[in-house]
């Protein structure tokens, strides 16, 4: 069940929709990212459900902001 995704374009037009997924009750996120981009915030992870585009969102790779249930929950935390 491993997936490797590559998005060559910068923008909102590159995304994946996985149909038939069961509802999530827990999630673990692991990633490695390296960027030279200092001008854009960037979205590392976005999970949407019907009625909520930002159910789970890890945003801004410069300072990291975690959104859960459509609300910003944690800001400027350190990812190691």
TrEMBL record:
Pfam family, one: Pentaxin
Top-rank lineage group of the source organism: Eukaryota
Segments forming a coiled coil: none
Matches recorded under PROSITE patterns: PTX_2 (PS51828)
Pentraxin (PTX) domain location: 1-80
Family annotation (SUPFAM superfamilies): Concanavalin A-like lectins/glucanases
Stored Gene3D superfamilies: 2.60.120.200
Protein's recorded name: Sushi, von Willebrand factor type A, EGF and pentraxin domain containing 1
Name of the encoding gene: SVEP1_19
């Amino acid at each position: 069940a491993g997936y490797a995704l590559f998005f060559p374009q910068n923008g909102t037009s590159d995304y994946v929709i996985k149909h038939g997924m069961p509802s999530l009750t827990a999630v673990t996120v692991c990633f490695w990212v390296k960027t030279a981009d200092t001008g854009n915030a960037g979205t590392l992870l976005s999970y949407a459900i019907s009625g909520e585009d930002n159910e789970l969102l890890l945003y801004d790779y410069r300072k990291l902001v975690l959104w859960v249930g459509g609300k910003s929950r944690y800001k400027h935390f350190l990812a190691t």
